[in-house]
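Question (not urgent): is this output format expected?
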Amino acid sequence: MEQQVEGIIRKTAEEMLWLLQHPPLYTAGTSAKSTDLLNSQGFPVYQTGRGGEYTYHGIGQAVGYVMLDLHRYQQDVRWYICTLEQWLIDTLAAFDVKGERRAGRVGIWVETPDGVEEKIAAIGVRLRRWVTFHGVSLNVNPDLQHFQGIVPCGIKEFGVTSLHALGVDASLEEVFTVMENVFKKTFIRRESVRALMPH
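Got this back:
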C-alpha cells in the first residue's frame, strides 16, 4: 500500500481499491491508547499510520483499502470521509440493512432487532499529499468474540455486530461484489479506479 501510494503521488501508478480479508489481528491507529488493548488473545498487534484507535481485522470481515488522488476529486477530508460512509451505507442497503452515521462516533451503526445500537463498519484513513490510503472494514461474518480483546475505536458504550448476526446470510464474495459496484457509483471519477478482487 505504501508503494502504491508513493506511485500515485509520483504519477507512476494507478488509483486502486483493494478488497480483502485479513487473518485475525489487531491494529492501532495514531490515536490508540495502550489501555484499550485489553487482551491480544495471541493475535498480532500492528501499529499503523492510519487515524483512529484500536480495531480488529479477521476472517469474515470485508476490508477495503482505498488509494485515490483527491486532487482529482475534492481536496476535502470531510468530503472524503462522508463519501466513504455513504459507500458503506449504500452497500448495507443492498442487503436491506439500514446503516447510519452517529454524531461523535466514527463508523457506521445499525439498530438491532432488540433496539440496541451496534457498530457494523469502521473507518480509518490517512492522507499523504492528498493521496488516500487505509480505508474501511465491514463485518460480514467475523468471530465477534475477537472484538473483546480491545475497546473498538475507543468506544466502550456500544458493541459490534455483523451482517450474519443481523440475519443476512451473505457470503464475503457477494459483499465484495456489491462493495465494488457501489464504489464505482459513489466516487465521481470511477473510471480511473481499478478494483483488485481477492482470490
